[in-house]
Design goal:
39% of the residues lie in helices and 24% in strands. The protein is of the alpha/beta class. A hairpin with a 4-residue loop joins strand 14 (344-349) and strand 15 (354-359).
Amino acid sequence: MKVFKFGGASVNSADAVRNMAQIVQCHIESEPLVVVVSAMGKTTNLLEKLVPWAAKAGEAEVLRQQLEDYHRSIASALMPDNKDIQQKIDDLLTDLDTLCDTLPADAEHYNYNYDQVVSHGELLSTTIIADYLNNLGINTLWADARQLIKTDSHYREGRVDWSATEKEIKNLELRIKNSYHVVLTQGFIGGTADGHTTTLGREGSDYSAAILAYCLEAESVTIWKDVPGFLNADPKFFTDTVKISQIPYNEAIELAYYGASVIHPKTVKPIQNKNIPLYIRSFITPDSEGSSVGNYHTISPETPLYIFKNDQILLSILPRDYSFIAEDNLQVIFGLLNELGIRVNLMQNSALSFSICVDNHPQRIGVLIERLKSMFRVRYNENLQLITIRYYTQAVIDHIVAGRPILLEQRSRTTEQIIVPCK
């Protein structure tokens, strides 16, 4: 059994869905193909603006209509005479409206609200695509990821209950044997034991695919992207990128941790634990070879790797009484970070200060700063870029920094990390 994952860019229009369906059709074998699909296009970004408390007055109605028009138009282009799919879309949108009208609009419930609302992107996309595949004669089962991937109630960063998840997915496997060509499910979302929707972290559909592969002991996982494979740099920043053909599991984990957007950070561990290969291929040129992550010794070809994270904030936290930054202070700081679900991208400490670089999530960072200020002095810089270079040279560093002031630098034998103002 193989697992495929298609992201938002691969299903952002009717033509894109047709292309995705052709890829799926070319890979149907004796065992069902498990296909994980994200929300269409930039739907997640739109839905984030509809979450109660974050939603802006006067904007919600316009965005809600955009959401409806976008999905109805894709469904109509794919299945012009299919009234059933329009009713299914209507049912999902009615559920979304009810949630937006009834969920408590306050900061305390924001993470819970987020998961209940934003998950509708994946529900809409997979509902449309499952009907389309069935219309093409590809016998497809729509499977609800909320019933398969079981998590705790850590909303927006659901922690997988592996025992319960494996039980549910094994039960699914028994039901689908010799019955379907394709099992289509949602990326990014899961569910608690008491029936509430959770999400696995932004861009978490790759992780969903890895979870399913682990529990199914799949032959492989393939992530279909709009790039030819794993590139040594983001083509938005570089014109002369190099495709990495082979990446060891440990290297992929390092790169994902540092922010390589081609793989979600949690993706590699489950598949490495069962030695399942991961392929990264282009849905634009599906016949090309792409890149593979597996049990290799080194990357091939060997070349510097660049990772850029924009919209970063650098916080410097200092004790009010000029005491040392020691274990007791760090325990308080990390406790707050864990409570608020804030991931640290870089940290550094001196005798009197502790600095962290984090993504700019306004709802979370504002709360963090205010709570830290009750115990510490806090300074921060915004609009920063975190640059990570694997297998660096000084010439490479100088070229990338391009004369910008370095606010913080950290270097190991293989990795250089630098925080500079955004260009």
